[in-house]
Amino acid sequence: MHPPYMSRRSFITSMGMAAAAAIVPVKLWATKKKLPNIVLIYADDLGYGDVSCYGATKFKTPNIDRLASLGLRFTNAHSPSATCTPSRYAMLTGEYAWRKEGTGVARGDARMIIHPGRTTLPSVLQKAGYTTGVVGKWHLGLGAENQDLNWNSDIKPGPLDIGFDYCFLIPATGDRVPCVYVENRRVVGLDPNDPILVSYGKPIGNEPTGKDYPELLKMHPSHGHDQTIVNGISRIGYMSGGKTARWVDEDMADTITGKAMDFIEKHKGERFFLYFSTHDIHVPRVPHPRFAGKSGLGPRGDAIVQFDWCVGEIIKTLDRLNLTKNTLLILTSDNGPVVDDGYKDQAVEKLSGHKPSGPLRGGKYSAFDAGTRVPFIVRWPDRIKPGESDALMCQIDFLASLASLTGRKLDADDAPDSFNVLSALTGKSPVGRDHLVEHAGTLSLIKGHWKYIEPSDGAKIARNVNIELGNDPEPQLYNLKNDLGERHNLAAQHPEIVKELASLLEKIRRNGRSRPLRQPQ
Ligand code: NG6
Ligand code: CA
User: Fold this and answer.
1) Ligand 1, pocket-test mutation among 87, 175, 222, 463, most atoms within 8 A of CB
2) What pLDDT digit, counting tens, does each position of 108-164 carry?
3) Centroid of ligand 2 to alpha carbon of 44 (angstroms)
4) Which numeric CATH code is attached to 39-196+241-433?
5) Dihedral, CA of residue 239, residue 241, residue 242 and residue 243, to nearest 10
6) How far is the CA of 282 from the centre of ligand 2 (A)?
7) How far is CA 304 from the centre of its chain?
8) pLDDT band at residue 33, thresholds of 50, 70 and 90?
9) Distance CA 218, CA 322 (A)
């Protein structure tokens, strides 16, 4: 029977269309036509104050500023954690990383921590008909648990097993071996006669290390980072072989931006999701020579200028292909800023008054807000009015929000901490999350303008990187509305608020989930 509101003929026609679209329900098929492409640009270690549209004055980030002027600039948006692996884990699974063992900063030979079969951000979009790709930094491990990982044959499981149709990866970080790219399941440019071996224990082969041969280095470590030398830079971990496959740091931004642009170009006729995860501005900061000196702040500032260039290339590609209007473009960062993160790259000496954390306290690794409050810009000309929003947002919500956008239902067990904040993400509502757990080793809870930091015996300052970690054996309570810099601990004045927030945090921890089941999907 055809529905009463349709003639028999149009019903048959629409059935034919639905069949052609692989039996998508008619209602969804109608809305699907308007679904946007989605591009997520994910910077590494870019701080709240590191771009000019968030207050940086010592250099300019014109492409990011332009995005912000054409889109929605969020001022209270967060990464889920204050370091890379847990932030990315949470963003892709919709589960707080602190719930799961083994989601701390991963070694370069770590096994994949997101298991195949799990509902992920890319798997949701793939099921919604998107072609999905990840280009750039991965840092979530590769290969199966309890099995040796052989870098010289098919590397699996990997992104292709959790919802991505394509990947071009920096497997871990720029400062961790192996220093090679992986495309889909294979190391790029590998000579089979020169196999790659990787070790995070003992030295391997007879490759020189930074510790033993500092005279071979073009950039010296300030702490750690003194193992195998690749491209004149010593790394974390040992590797041998794979000489023809090793990356050149100076070319990394060009290489991965080129791959991201190729992905867009190749899939311009389809609906696509691209997760473009840059290496910038993580250490080692070795931008291409054409960016050298451009910021006046040394390699850290130059890496920001390079990152801005990458953003500009993506914007231009979308413009050129006429995709801009119906592309949801999100730009944000995996955690807050750090100045000296292990290499002597003059970042400290040349800071010149620049404040990577802007008005916030702390930085990468920190429970104070600069650990996780990051730049967060969303542009979608067809649907989002330019402006600003102070809604409480978190990247962990991409999963439920984009599931809602694309008409995918989540099972009760999926994405246990991902909220549907689509209205806030698209600027329809000024209200985002009700509350948010922040993770930096220590947990914090933000609810409204209050922020509670759990008591912790951890170090107060991360010595080498010189960042206040926000740990204190006493509970801390800050009013972010008039004390954004978290200077005045009000816990003693408001014990009732401390009690309320501590018990909500405990409940979230105990329940194993925080996504409201009755939230509209
Ligand atoms: C730290 C590294 C730091 C950086 C960080 C991970 C040392 C001394 N420090 O252990 O350089 O790699 O891990 O950064 O090794 S993240 O952004 O990927 O989380
Ligand atoms: Ca990071």
Assistant:
1) 175
2) 999 999 999 999 999 999 999 999 999 999 999 999 998 989 999 999 999 999 999
3) 4
4) 3.40.720.10
5) 100
6) 6
7) 16
8) low
9) 43
- Asked if residue 241 lies in contact with residue 204, where contact means CB atoms within 8 angstroms, the answer is no
Nearest C-alpha neighbor of 431 from the set 399, 397, 402, 393: 393
Angle between helices 299-320 and 252-266 (to 10 degrees): 20
Q: Which amino acid is at 275?
A: Y
Q: Across-strand partners of 387?
A: 72
pLDDT in tens, 407-459: 999 999 999 999 999 999 999 999 999 999 999 989 999 999 999 999 999 99
pLDDT of residue 29: 39
- In the chain, the amino acid numbered 427 is G
Look at residues 221, 356, 350, 232 and name the one whose alpha carbon lies nearest to residue 293.
350
Residues 259, 24 contacting (CB under 8 angstroms)? no
Longest dimension (CA), the chain: 81
Chain centroid to CA 36: how far? 20
DSSP state of 74: E
Buried b (16+ CB within 10 A) or exposed e, 278-302: bbbbbbbbbbbeebeebbebbbbbb
Across 400-435, b (16+ Cβ under 10 Å) vs e yields bbbbbbbbbebeeebbbbbbbbbbbbbbeeeebbeb
CA distance 46 to 60: 14
Q: Which atom of ligand 1 is nearest to the CA of 342?
A: 11
Q: Residue length, the chain?
A: 521
